[in-house]
Design goal:
heterohexamer, A alpha/beta (168), B mainly alpha (282), C mainly alpha (645), D alpha/beta (131), E alpha+beta (369), F alpha+beta (112), B: mainly alpha, globular, C: 645 residues, mainly alpha
């Protein structure tokens, strides 16, 4: 059984399927994510496929400042994903709201809505950084310590699972 | 006893061969796109990972459909390995299709539903072709049993070349290859997201993926019957057919189902009929 | 299986009498004593009796018997006078409703019969008058068992039905009287060997169907009943013409006198073609399909009993009975093409239907077409296919009709679109319906065994093969669409039992179980009954539970085993999956907590909908029926004209 | 004080728009800007052969502006946007998102407002897709 | 908006499909509420607001220099044009004379951006009809353009090169020498795909006759850019001669059939046109300063427009003499093309939705800002 | 017809265009705007960078000699680098690596 569990862990590491959601970003990050899948960076080397469907995905890549309308979408997508799952926030907007902090329709930061496992800074981060970010997330996936269980119901930005309070 | 051994080997070898084939397919596709591509074992990693995921269902009966689909294609492959009746194999693999559709329709997601209808339309377009292909084999060998093909002195290809082209149509559809991957697409960059597979998740998706391995092997198996002289020729023909599929996948845009009907019924069906007509006359 | 008449004749005579006369008596009793309590007992008792009798009959086949000449004469006269009476009734109905065709057709039949009586030709005395071989037995079993189940279920159905209609006075006595009378007539029809008796029972079924369709007495019911009456009268005319032709020109008045070698010239084949025509009419083949479709206005048990599982089988029986005689003739080829065409055309029309009962009706026509095609091919394999289809179609279609009846009473609609997500409202009925669909289109169930044989038998006929291949694909499409629709909707995984009368559950249970059991037992049934019903030459050898011949092999037992195993596995998976986390279906992330609802424009909740595809532009009735009728007429002309060569 | 500018009033707006359309002008966009007090300026930008033409309309308070979407269908997004962000309502919008084009109703008041206008519900007029 | 096609047939139950906000064919969140009858679209209602950030209002919080960085991030694909247009408007208000070399550099980067944006679009468009290997090819070529960006401006996508009064970086001579052969390569690569994009049967099956918009209708709906030029209207904002376009030799690429195929052709040939323009600009680039120091604060109002890859980009700026601008109004081309999209969809097949939507190259972040 | 064939076949035989990123790292271009670094020794805490930053992601307190830069909000535009009077800010060639948790001192320093 332990061997099987180990094998599954290995397979998780070898076969992360992506879901990318643009949560109000300027396109820069989204295009860089897409660029990762194309020949020059070829994320499929790592078994990564962009599935575009939360029910199939293991890794949620989110870019963009969250706004009140799409934060619901983001929560929905996150809750639909089967555990174990990793959330990678991409770009300055996704990390904190970036340059748009202070605008009236900006919630600012993915981690105010769902727990984030990896932060990839940059505006936009270059594909190498995104690859690093995803691999860092996978490392977390293999060693545990990610959002393994989502059976506790919908996850909002509650104090307990807020990554800022959870880590450190 | 021999049959039992054959059946067992079919059950074990088919998914393995199917997964490796799809792994190779992904590498080759990547190379054609100037990429490196995933490791050969990638399909196996994918499936193992999916088995290890949380069970998330949209409708519990989808689980039924997934199992039924897998069972149907597995039985079809087993029947193929014990060299049973081609028509029975056809009917049983059609069961798999129906369960895929019922599973897709069981979800309230419009993407899954539309995918279900498209899957039905696909089978509507290509099942008559498959029946005609099988009938052609019967007319040539005098029996629907595959054993008759094994015993047949000359390759079927000699007398059934047009039917083989029709079979390639069916293969393109069944293997979900572009240009006919509009019901469910492996790349998912299409209007239907995952098509019929949209609302399957985790272990259930894994079952369907394994089923797809079986189906791939089955289709290539039927293909290989056209040159059943020796193992090398069978493998070569199946390999060539699969290469054709990969090539087609990479040089065509996705069609829609109207165009599929156009091609399958206005091109594939007449081709098959012309070939059958020869056989009746000859 | 060649027993000469060694069995005591007396037993078989009693059984035959029970099969025909008991339901007749019960019908009269039903009509006269208008008591619910009596009826509620009488109908099940009749059912049990008929079932027992039919089963008992199976150990005596084949047998035939005649009557004393004096007795036969009495019965002849009796039957002739009832014939004339019936035609008089039909004439009266036609005149009363100012129908143009019915009186003409009735008068034509009367003229023919009267002409025969006034200018009789000497014919050899007929003995036997009753002949029961495996084919007849098969029909008797279907009529007696499936028919009884439907009648018993109708007890429950009609109660709700009448409550729904809010009638002042119950008309159930009449309804059940006609239903039972119909069972008697059907048994008589398949057991009678003498052609004039056959015609007599044929007419009774026509009248019965008229009465039952018109039962609700709504304008639509009357119109459709009249349509059924005139079309079936046309069939009656064809039959009487054929019967009289045989009697007057060939001196033949019973099936037993047919000899295959005779049927080589037009004078022999033409009446045979007429007989086939009568069969086509009764089986509602194109272009006569409209009566069957119209008959759907009747209460659902009527549809189940008359119009799909039993009455239309009379037509198939008639053609199968004469099939050995047109084997290898042009007529046979035409029948095969005609049947294959009907199979394809009806499947196409069914695809364009969203009325569940009409889908069933077209599916019936389609399957009957397939049986005719098999009869036309005439090879042992094809005839085996025909009888297997006959058996399994009757049972499966009865099941589906009862399901649709239950659904209709549950949701007040026959529209397939309204059945979307029926599982959440009527889970068990929905599941049984889905099971019925699965029985229709999936191996290893009997119908598919039949279809497999039919396809293998058709492989030598390119045109028929093409039509069958296309038709099968269409068939799968419309059934799978329906099954998927029933199961669609987001579910919380809970099973809420629904309430249905115990009789309905019983009927549905018996039929479903029957199909599974019979399907598993196909190899055994084949040896015991079906092979004999299909003719003298065995088409398949059975070993290890597989049907096998040089053409192909269908391993029924192993496949049933696999199917059962797969079913249990999959059911376990469902139970297991119910424990899993239920999530919303994929809605592009816009879903709301309420199932199937997404956030649309202006933040308003929008119910996501998914409509079935019906391809009205291609498969709509308005679009296709004309062409199909024309094609069928063409084939019929070819069929009749071809005999004149 | 843009070049090629015409100052118009509420009543001459639609006529002017229709005239521009007749003259073959393409609708470019609309700009709203909040002036001091309760006045709001709405600029309509048009273009013909790569030359601009602007209409300047000044409205006061929570006046309702006639929509030019019956003339220029393409203006529906711009007008809806101004409804959202400035709280000015348009009368006769062909597709009316009822102030939900960009913003959730939770964002109150309209972000470009320097004073509070009441979000008037336009519930009495049917929404765009019913027309 | 409800554009009904024919009478609804009795036998056509409708489906209501939420197409987006998260949908793999849209890189950005946009929702189309589609009503479909047997896969034919009868009604399409777009839903916006998933990318709205409200950055026009940020001018109250950032000074007019900082706003350059903000408007660059309206859209990550065409950031140069946004900054350029913004700077042009401010420069007009403040009457700043921008050095010639800076204007040339702006033009070069703008055309590089157009080139990468069109290549990106061609890839996405190929993906919209499931031609994955073509998608990969175009994106592979695009990487070379991005390399030029990265080497010359320091970043791949959002190059942050414009400032009010000029540009921030100069193009060194060795960079120019290095850039031209790469452009050569890019051009060869693109030309190699010409026969596929223009002639492939399967592509034509999916694009010809889809989403037809005739010239009059396009003008009436306010369409701009390739959407307009695909409908036979030869209008290109670059003809106004902003930056140095007045000195460069080019003709707008125009197609007449007005369908997705025409728009695809326009963009495809515009990539080659961009390469040509870059070459012209590089050849004609004068020596000199790359920026002037801007002193003082703007007061007044101005409009400016440039040709973005998707069409005409329009800025209206009003300044009241303070450090912060009073109003920045951005009308991106996708905003102007949305009405065309809404009218193009009904009557088309569901499988054509991605093709038609992508054919206007929608940039939702531009549309909603 | 299938004119893509020549392209895909050429791809099959020519060198793959994939950069094997984690194994082989391409040498960066000059003056690439990577991570932001400060040479604390030269910094006078004048606050020009904080004032000019369009993303407002730098906080400077002269009194306590603190200079906090929030990498989660920084858009790496280079404005601070150009405007720093002491030239003590510069971009590295490598982008800032991803991290799994926000730095508490930064989140404390920037309450937004």
């Amino acid at each position: 059984m332990r061997i099987w569990a180990k094998f599954i862990g290995y397979a998780r590491f070898k076969s992360p399927w992506l879901l990318h959601f643009d949560c109000g970003s300027c396109n820069g990050c989204d295009i860089e994510i897409l660029a990762c899948l194309t020949p020059v960076y070829d994320l499929e080397r790592f078994g990564i496929v962009n599935v575009g469907n939360p029910l199939h995905a293991d890794v949620l890549l989110v870019s963009g400042t969250v706004n009140p309308r799409n934060r619901i979408v983001l929560e929905n997508l996150f809750n639909q994903m089967p555990a174990p799952k990793v959330v990678v926030a991409i770009g300055a907007c996704g990390l904190s709201g970036g340059i748009f902090r202070g605008a009236y329709n900006v919630v600012g930061g993915i981690d105010r809505v769902i727990p984030v496992d990896v932060y990839v800074p940059g505006c936009p981060p270059r594909p190498e950084a995104i690859i690093d970010g995803v691999r860092l997330g996978l490392e977390k996936l293999r060693t545990g310590g990610v959002t393994l269980d989502s059976k506790d119901g919908p996850i909002g930005a509650t104090k307990e699972n807020h990554p800022c309070s959870r880590t450190n | 006893m021999r049959n039992a051994l054959l059946a067992l080997s079919g059950l074990l070898a088919a998914p393995l061969a199917g997964s490796l084939l799809i792994g190779l397919d992904r590498i080759l596709t990547a190379r054609l796109q100037s990429r490196i591509g995933p490791p050969v074992l990638q399909p196996i990693f994918d499936v193992v990972k999916l088995f290890g995921k949380e069970r998330v269902v949209v409708n519990a009966w989808q689980a039924f459909s997934a199992y039924a689909y897998l069972a149907a294609v597995a039985v079809a492959v087993v029947l193929f390995f014990i060299r049973s009746d081609l028509l029975v194999i056809f009917l049983i693999q059609a069961v798999g299709t129906v369960f895929i559709v019922v599973g897709a329709l069981a979800s309230a997601s419009p993407f899954s539903q539309v995918g279900g209808y498209r899957e039905l339309l696909q089978s509507l377009a290509c099942e008559p072709l498959l029946v005609l292909v099988i009938a052609g084999i019967y007319l040539e060998t005098g029996s629907f049993a595959i054993t008759a093909v094994d015993r047949w002195p000359q390759p079927l290809m000699v007398r059934l070349p047009l039917l083989f082209i029709s079979l390639l149509f069916v293969m393109a559809v069944k293997l979900r290859k572009s240009p006919f991957d509009f019901a469910a697409c492996r790349h998912a960059h299409q209007e239907l997201v995952g098509g019929v597979l949209t609302d399957y998740s985790g272990p259930f998706l894994a079952l369907i993926e394994v089923g797809h391995w079986f189906e791939t092997v089955l289709m290539l198996g039927i293909c290989s019957l056209f040159w059943a002289d020796n193992w090398a020729a069978m493998l070569a023909l199946a390999g060539a057919a699969y290469l054709t599929m990969v090539w087609l996948d990479n040089v065509t845009a996705r069609m829609n189902w109207r165009l599929l009907f156009g091609y399958a019924w206005l091109l594939g069906l007449p081709l098959a009929l012309i070939n059958l007509f020869w056989l009746y006359r000859g | 299986m060649h027993f000469q008449r060694v069995k005591p004749v007396r037993t078989t005579e009693i059984i035959v009498a029970i099969l025909i006369l008991w339901p007749l008596a019960a019908a009269i009793l039903c009509y006269l004593v208008r008591s619910d309590r009596l009826r509620n007992k009488l109908v099940p008792v009749t059912g049990v009796l008929l079932t027992t009798a039919a089963l008992l009959l199976s150990i005596h086949i084949p047998f035939s018997f005649g009557l004393e000449p004096s007795a036969e004469k009495v019965i002849d006269v009796l039957i002739l006078s009832i014939d004339i009476l019936l035609l008089g009734v039909i004439l009266f109905i036609g005149l009363r409703h100012r129908h143009r065709l019915i009186p003409i057709l009735a008068i034509l039949q009367l003229v023919l019969i009267g002409f025969n009586e006034f200018y009789p030709v000497p014919t050899p005395r007929v003995n036997p008058i009753v002949h029961c071989d495996a084919l007849s037995l098969l029909l008797v079993l279907i009529v007696s068992i499936v028919g009884s189940v439907i009648c018993v279920q109708a007890l429950a159905y009609m109660k709700t039905h009448e409550a729904h209609l809010q009638l002042s006075a119950s008309r159930q006595h009449r309804f059940f009287a006609v239903m039972l009378l119909f069972l008697a007539a059907m048994n008589g029809l398949v057991l009678a060997d003498k052609l004039s008796y056959l015609y007599f029972f044929f007419e009774i079924t026509t009248i019965c169907s008229y009465l039952l369709i018109a039962h609700d007495a709504t304008p639509a019911a009357i119109t459709n009943a009249l349509r059924a009456l005139w079309i079936n009268s046309f069939g009656g005319l064809a039959l009487v013409a054929a019967v009289l032709w045989f009697a007057r020109f060939h001196g033949i008045n019973a099936f037993q006198q047919f000899k295959a070698d005779d049927f080589r010239s037009a004078v022999w084949l033409l009446p045979l073609a007429f007989m086939c025509l009568a069969g086509f009419v009764k089986a509602a083949q194109f272009p006569f399909q409209s009566w069957l479709l119209g008959a759907m206005v009747a209460p659902t048990p009527v549809s189940a009993l008359l119009h799909s599982s039993t009455m239309v089988k009379a037509g198939v029986y008639l053609v199968l009975r004469v099939a050995p005689f047109f084997q290898d003739t042009f007529l046979g080829l035409c029948v095969a093409l005609f049947g294959a065409f009907a199979f394809l055309a009806a499947a196409a029309l069914a695809l364009g239907q969203r009325n569940g009962k009409r889908v069933l009706a077209y599916s019936t026509i389609s399957n009957l077409g397939l049986m005719f095609a098999c009869a036309g091919f005439g090879t042992p394999m094809a005839l085996t296919a025909a009888v297997i289809l006959l058996l399994f179609h009757a049972v499966t279609k009865a099941l589906l009709f009862l399901c649709v009846g239950a659904i209709e009473q549950g949701i007040d609609s026959r529209d397939i679109e309204d059945m979307r997500g029926l599982y959440t409202r009527m889970p068990l009925t929905a599941l049984i319906t889905v099971a019925g669909v699965i029985f229709m289109i999936m191996p290893p169930f009997g119908l598919l065994v039949g279809k497999w044989m039919a396809l293998e038998a058709a492989a030598r006929n390119l045109a028929a093969l093409l039509m069958l291949a296309l038709g099968s694909a269409l068939t799968v499409m419309y059934w799978a669409r329906w099954a998927g629709t029933l199961m669609s909707d987001p579910l919380d995984g809970r099973f809420r039992p629904e309430s249905q009368p115990v009789l309905t559950w019983g009927a549905l249970g018996i039929l479903s179980f029957g199909i599974v059991a019979l399907s598993t037992a196909v190899p055994w049934l084949y040896g015991a009954l079906l092979q004999a019903a299909a003719g003298d030459v065995p088409a398949y050898s059975v070993h290890n539970g597989a049907m096998e011949n040089p053409t192909g092999i269908f391993s029924v037992f192993p496949l049933c085993l696999a199917a059962g195993f797969g079913f249990i596995l999959a059911l376990g998976a469902v139970r297991h999956a119910r424990q899993a986390r239920i999530v919303s279906p994929y809605m592009c992330g816009a879903q709301q907590p309420e199932p199937g609802v997404f956030t649309g424009p202006m933040n308003q909740p929008v119910k996501s909908e998914a409509g079935n595809y019906y391809f009205a532009f291609l498969f709509g009735e308005e679009r296709l029926t004309g062409w199909i009728n024309a094609g069928a007429l063409l084939l019929l002309t070819l069929l009749i004209g071809g005999t004149l060569r | 004080m843009l070049a090629n500018e015409l100052i118009i009033g509420l009543d001459s707006l639609l006529g002017e728009a229709a005239r521009l359309k007749r003259d073959g002008y393409r609708f470019v966009t609309m700009t709203a800007l909040r002036l001091n007090g309760t006045r709001t300026e709405i600029l309509y930008h048009f273009d013909r052969e790569l030359h601009f033409r602007h209409l300047r309309l000044t409205v006061t308070g929570d006046a309702t502006v006639p929509s030019i979407t019956p003339v220029y269908f393409g203006a529906f997004l711009a007008e809806n946007e101004i409804q959202d962000l400035f709280g000015i309502l348009f009368e006769g919008l062909v597709i009316d998102y009822r102030r939900t084009l960009f913003l959730e109703t939770s964002i109150e008041p309209a972000p470009f407002c320097r004073f509070n206008v009441k979000r008037k519900a336009k519930s009495d007029s049917p929404a765009g897709e019913e027309r | 908006m409800k554009v009904q096609t024919k009478d609804a047939l009795r036998l056509k139950p409708r489906s209501v499909i939420p197409f987006g906000p998260q949908h793999p064919v849209f890189p950005e969140p946009l929702q189309l509420k589609l009503t479909v009858e047997e896969e034919m679209i009868t009604e399409a209602i777009p839903v916006f607001g998933y990318v709205h950030r409200g950055l026009e209002q940020l001018c109250a919080q950032r000074d007019f220099h900082q706003m350059v960085q903000v408007v660059e991030r309206v859209c990550g694909i065409c950031s140069v044009m946004h900054a350029m247009c913004y700077c042009q408007a401010i420069e007009e208000i403040m009457a700043v004379e921008v050095p010639r070399r800076a204007v040339y550099l702006r033009t070069i980067w703008a055309e590089l951006h157009r080139l990468q944006s069109h290549l990106l679009w061609l890839g996405l468009f190929a993906d919209s009809f499931g031609f994955e290997s073509l998608f990969m090819q175009f994106w592979r070529i695009r990487e070379k353009v991005l390399d030029i960006n990265e080497a010359t401006a320091g970043n791949r996508v959002i190059v942050s090169i414009n400032v009010v009064g000029g540009v921030r970086r100069d193009l060194a001579a060795e960079n120019v020498r290095w850039l031209l052969p790469i452009l050569e390569q890019v051009e060869t690569d693109i030309r190699r795909l010409e026969s596929t994009v223009i002639d492939d049967v399967t592509i034509r099956k999916r694009t010809v006759g889809k989403g037809i918009l005739n010239g009059d209708r396009a003008r009436e709906l306010g369409a701009v850019g390739p959407t307009l030029r695909g409908s036979g209207v030869a209008q290109d904002t670059r003809q106004t001669g902003y930056a140095v376009y007045a000195e460069l030799d080019f003709q707008p690429v125009v197609e007449t059939s007005g369908d997705c195929y025409a728009r695809c052709r326009v963009r495809f040939y515009e990539t080659l046109q961009s390469i040509d323009l870059i070459r012209q600009a590089v050849a004609g680039m004068p020596p000199g300063d790359i920026a002037v120091t801007v002193k003082g604060r703007p007061q007044g109002e101005a409009v400016a427009r440039v040709e973005q890859p998707r069409g005409e980009l329009f800025y209206y700026i009003k300044a009241d003499g303070s450090k912060n601008l009073e109003r920045v109004r951005i009308r991106a081309p996708s905003f102007a093309n949305m009405p065309s999209l809404v009218t193009m969809l009904p009557g088309m097949w569901f499988s054509d939705v991605p093709v038609i939507v992508l054919s206007i190259d929608p940039c939702i972040s531009c549309t909603e800002r | 017809m299938f004119s893509m064939t020549s392209t895909v076949l050429r791809n099959l035989v020519t060198r793959k265009s994939t950069r094997l990123y984690p194994q082989e790292v391409r040498s960066p271009f000059e003056r690439v705007r990577g991570d932001l670094e400060r040479e604390a020794a030269n910094c006078t805490y004048c606050g020009v960078c904080a004032a000019k930053c369009p993303s407002q992601c730098i906080r400077v307190k002269k009194a306590t000699a603190t200079w906090i830069h929030d990498p989660t909000a920084c858009v790496f535009c280079g404005t601070c680098v150009e405007t720093c009077p002491e030239k003590c800010l510069h971009h590295t060639e490598r982008p800032r690596p991803p991290f799994t948790a926000k730095d508490a001192t930064i989140t404390e320093g920037f309450k937004y």
